[in-house]
Design a protein that fits this description.
Butyryl-CoA Dehydrogenase, subunit A, domain 3; single chain; five-stranded antiparallel sheet; membrane; alpha+beta
Length: about 160
């Protein structure tokens, strides 16, 4: 049910993970030549490629993990009658979000090698949203667990 606080957290989690699909995750600019490498959920590529630049690297793994995490969160909202299943889905979602963050780190490392200068790259908003989603997932699981404890305490009173 949407009126419960954990459902709001899960909905925000799904929106954060869907935002990863459209926002840049990482970028690095060479101040001398003006070349810029940008990592998105779909590709790692130069924004203004010059002759001899490497071809864009597909990064569909990030998009698949983010989309799967959003789908699990939406499915988890509608499992409100089975809180134990919600907790298990929360664990699966935790693993998917951590894998999304790991894939972002991996492909940013690949991007560092594409533009070989001493200036470090910058993580963009698309990288920080999975971290927010991780926090929202922990909060949702905490409130799901609290509901389960409340139901068990009421069963003891009967």
């Amino acid at each position: 049910m949407i009126q419960r606080i954990q459902s709001v957290f899960l909905l925000l989690l799904a929106l954060a993970m869907l935002s990863v699909l459209v926002l840049p995750i990482w970028s690095k600019t060479d101040p001398m030549t003006g070349q810029e490498v940008v990592l998105s959920a779909y590709k790692l590529a130069f924004t203004n490629p010059q002759p001899g630049s490497p071809a864009p690297t597909p990064t569909y793994l990030i998009a698949i993990l983010a989309l799967a995490s959003a789908a699990v969160a939406v499915y988890e909202i509608f499992q409100f009658k089975n809180r134990f299943r919600q907790l298990k889905l929360g664990l699966v979602n935790f693993l998917l979000i951590v894998a999304t963050i790991g894939a972002g780190f991996y492909y940013s490392g690949v991007g560092e090698q594409l533009l070989n200068i001493k200036v470090p790259g910058e993580f963009e908003a698309g990288f920080y949203l999975p971290t927010l989603a991780l926090l929202l997932n922990v909060l949702a699981n905490r409130f799901i667990r609290r509901d389960e404890q409340l139901v068990r305490s009421m069963d003891r009173l009967r």
